Amino acid sequence: MKFFDKAAAGLAAALFLLPAAAEAHFQLIYTPEVNLARPGEVPLKLVFWHPFENGHVMDMGEPEEFYALFRGEKIDLTPSLKPITFEGAENSARAFEASLTANRAGDYILVAVPAPYYEASEDIYIQQITKAYLNRGQLPTDWMEPQGLTAEIVPLNRPTNILARSTFTGRVLSEGKPVAGAEIEVEYMAAEPLMDENRPGEPTAGPMPGGAVVAISDANGTFTFGIPKAGFWGFAALGVGPVKEHEGKELSQDAVIWVRAYDVK
Ligand SMILES: [Cu+2]
To answer: Which residues have beta carbons under 5 A from ligand 1 (an ion)?
Structure first.
């Protein structure tokens, strides 16, 4: 009987959390073209959104850090940050734009650490430590390396040209150590932001029945996901960061990575 009481209590708790859990929050670092043919300025958008649903946009926390890593060198991008309003399909919210000068060949790894965001429906703070990858001149340099973040997903496939209908494998690290059993939410950027209009373009997919798509990392912290479609795919390892509390409330410090998949022509 005790078991059933516990199970019933667990079920009630799960149902209570359901509305918040059904849609995955994702911090975006977005630019439409991740493979840069020419040197120059790359425009960037930072949006905290539900991109699979083309849904609710959250007021993004002021970036605590925003930089690019190029061959181990840190390029501070905070001087280029400007607040913008992102007009989602359901609502508008504060977001940011910025730019990167990418003149040399190799991988540029973009890292954003937004201030914790208070999610009232769950009474928790969320902080998504986010990475996105650009490459110039097709020269692979650093994408396969951990970038020394307190929480991150290290790609085991080149993140700037994943083949649609192949797989992506990532490794979840917290303070440099693999995390077994991490819950990883998987997100498709169904509507890509229009750079000049600060709103989403036409969605090319709808959200999945059953809510968030989830993978669990194995004993080595790795997970593999079959990428069904070209476009941008995001992976968020929930609560794997070392900081668990913010202003007296629970903090979910998540590690997010974005990869770009292409169809075979
Ligand atoms: Cu949400």
So the answer is: 23, 25
